[in-house]
Amino acid sequence: MLSDFFDGYLARKKQTISRFGSVLDPAMDKFFVYFTLSIFYLEGNLRLSEALTLLSRDFAICIYGLYLLAFHKWPTLKIEALCFGKITTALQFLVLIALTLDYSFSPYAYLLFVLLGLLALLELFLRKNRCLKKID
């Protein structure tokens, strides 16, 4: 997580952001979260429902991708960071650190991730509409 933070910081500071990096960075974040959640689930430290709520943002992005595919708008996709996506990732990392330290959360606390997933989906649709208005 620290290397991810410093990598992003240096990329922005030196303005060396690439399309490959903009795809690889969130993919590696997701791999790390999925892998770690799997371990916590398999060890019995996390319920399946809690793990799934932590992934709500990813479900929202999949829904948005299906929308783009269904309406043949996939070619218009621009890969950009989501504000609520970054917040979700940071909170996911904090929850994973807390779980590593044997801290447990109320099952209701995980509902925050469902809200963040819905906000990320809303952010995607609002961005899309804003981009389409600029094109028209």
Write the SSE topology.
Layout: H1 2-13, H2 19-42, H3 48-54, H4 56-70, H5 83-100, H6 111-135
Helix pairs in contact: 2-5, 4-6, 5-6
Outline of this structure?
By secondary structure, this protein is mostly helical. It is built from six helices and no strands.
Question: What does this protein look like?
Answer:
By secondary structure, this protein is mainly alpha-helical. The chain is about 75% helix and about 0% strand. Helix 2 (about 20-40) runs parallel beside helix 5, helix 4 packs parallel to helix 6 (about 110-135) and helix 5 (about 85-100) packs antiparallel against helix 6 (about 110-135). The radius of gyration is 16 Å and the shape is globular.
Q: What is the number of helical segments per DSSP (H or I, 4+ residues)? A: 6
Q: Element order, helices and strands?
A: HHHHHH
Poorly predicted sequence stretches spanning 5 or more consecutive residues: 132-136
The number of distinct β-strands equals 0
Biggest beta sheet summary: none
Query: What shape does the CA trace take?
Result: globular
What is the terminal-to-terminal distance?
A: 41 Å
| Residues in helix, % | over 70%
Q: Overall mean pLDDT score?
A: 83
β content, as a range?
A: under 5%
Indicate the structural class: mainly alpha
Radius of gyration: 16 Å
Keywords:
6 helices, globular, disordered C terminus, mainly alpha, about 140 residues, single chain
